[in-house]
Description:
Helix content: 25-40%
CATH superfamily of the largest domain: Vaccinia Virus protein VP39
CATH topology of the largest domain: Rossmann fold
CATH architecture of the largest domain: 3-Layer(aba) Sandwich
CATH class of the largest domain: Alpha Beta
Structural class: alpha/beta
Mean pLDDT: 80
Order of helices and strands: EHHEHEHEHEHHHHHHHEHEEEHE
Radius of gyration: 22 Å
Distance between the termini: 34 Å
Number of domains: 2
Number of helices: 14
Amino acid sequence: MSHACIFPALQMPVFLSPWGISALPWRRVLEAFQVGVWPWFGTSDAMDEMMPWGRGSLTSRPSTGDGASEPPLLPAGSPRELPFYHLPVLMQEVLDMLQPAPGKLIFDGTLGGGGHSEAILQKGARVVAMDQDDEALAYAKERLKPYAESFCALKGNFRDFPKVLTEAGVGGLDGMLIDIGVSSHHLDAAERGFSFAKDGPLDMRMDTQSALTAADIVNTWAQEDIERLLYENAEESQARRIARAIVQDRALKPFTTTLQLAEMIARVCPKQSKRHPATQTFQALRCEVNQEYAALRDFLAAAPKWLKPGGRLVVISFHSIEDRIVKQTFAHQSAPFLDRPEWPEPRRNPDCHLRLITRKPVEAGEIELSLNPRARSARLRCAERLS
């Protein structure tokens, strides 16, 4: 499936990918895979002087006379009251790090409810976004209609952004953002099976077209594989006990719902803290179903090559394993030299493309935590592309 965007043929310049390869020919894509019309795809510095050509039926982004953006006025009953809901975390911190402004092109790899993208658009920057969840894309299409000339979203996992953006003709990003926590909408929607707060099918797929579900894992995987999964994906100290109990119980009745699994885990692992005994098991299953750690590593490896010099890369994670991956990757990509005991002297690091902006992770403040308790686990790290 191509990820091109639609714009008048006479205004079709040729753009280069970050590696100098000409972008694929522009092709029309099904509307389900695109939000809005974006006629100025390409390196942002090459397009600063070009006027956008928007779809007449959509509302332009309002702005003041001096060029400063203002939030759009949304009528009652429109995007704010749509069924999809997600409160973005560390909003001001994201803006401080990315420094969005007119003329800048920002990539939002985890669009979700569109909160971060909307705040960036309000600063006058342009946004290209991705999400693998059809519900998120549909919601964003409505919520961000006022910004149709500055916003476009394409379907896909952020790990695949090089292929998707190359096909769309995008390159030379001024900023990149991914927020890899599960959204409030996913946790609250029982039918998606992400949480044991409400009973629902044991699913956990971000992309509902994916094949593997959480039920497939607990009902078909071998005990030693489930044990390894629980320990590696969530550092579950009771991994062996839980894996053994899953295999024993599924022999009598397959697991089909979230509460069925959560209640079994609570039975074999009595509660020892405020956290539910099934919390880490659900984390481990969700990460496996959606290949979250592999996706994060793939994204971090490719992202620096897509940033312009001085461009910022911002990653928000929600538990220690994710944060560790980001921390270690940033440390490697910002080290000018590498040294090993067997080497006679340090060697230049070919992957050194970044400069650390945050030495320690940025966390939510007291005011945000009082408004959104789910932000308590959020950790933000930022790095900047070297010249």
